[in-house]
């Protein structure tokens, strides 16, 4: 888990946190952070120090809504070749998943990236191929760069990209859960930098730390938050300086600006969050599946979709409960028989807790 050097540093950090004698609730928004916390027992260690860390809406598969899944189901049933990442294919919609209709004979294909979907379109010029573009600011530039490269005319994307800072603002303003500090995601922050978080500290007096993914990163991030709170500060600090710079990735941000524009969008478990989505600009509308197949998707747009019966992923994504608070966890809901996306995605809290619970 730790090198000897890191073990000494970890012990020093833990001692400092214990000496602070705190009782605090932090939130992170990153599936990789959650994996590190649970896999290495950091969550249990921090609880002994008076710190509880919950996962917010940091799993892109988990926050994708039943309506967006239904859009892909409709496209597949209409004869399109639909493509997406493996986790997304397994997420249950209101009644079906992409996996289940694939077994019925519809053309649903798992891909490892958007480039794979473009290749499928090139190899099937007489077929419409749709890629479900899911993810935060980390993956959206890849989607944008492919559209830059003039993909074939039979290729399009169903854009489901979302952005993190606006979701954090929504959680804070909803006020459902006490948050003493935020651990910001390393991957997203390599793209957007640290500046987009600053208004949260300024306007809501929330201490923040951008942290890396090693156990020592998270421990150090927690100590930095504790130190801010002890000194009555609310800043954005960068623990992950080896990868994250204040200005972020200039080239990737340019792609985001050139290809997408902000839009209001619903997140699973949340109401519509203003300017938290990314939609394609008009100059790329030929590759926008919602515009290209508007008639096919018309019935979906005005329909309201409910969560799977008994699923509490929405509350979990808002930080209101843990997987162990859900009566379905590990019983009716397992990775083999998932009820909700938090058990499907490897970045989902339920899946992570289930994988490591025996340890």
TL;DR of this structure?
The chain has 359 residues and is of the alpha/beta class. It contains 19 helices and eleven strands.
List keywords for this structure.
about 350 residues, alpha/beta, Rossmann fold, four-stranded parallel sheet, 19 helices, about 45% helix
Secondary-structure blueprint:
Blueprint: H1 4-20, E1 24-28, H2 31-39, H3 42-48, E2 51-55, H4 60-63, H5 66-77, E3 81-84, H6 86-90, H7 98-102, E4 108-110, H8 114-123, E5 129-135, H9 140-148, E6 155-161, H10 164-174, E7 181-184, H11 186-192, H12 198-204, E8 208-210, H13 215-230, E9 236-238, H14 250-259, E10 260-266, E11 272-280, H15 289-292, H16 294-301, H17 313-317, H18 341-344, H19 349-356
Parallel strand pairs: 1-2, 1-7, 3-4, 3-5, 5-6, 7-8, 8-9
Antiparallel strand pairs: 10-11
Helix pairs in contact: 1-13, 2-19, 5-16, 9-14
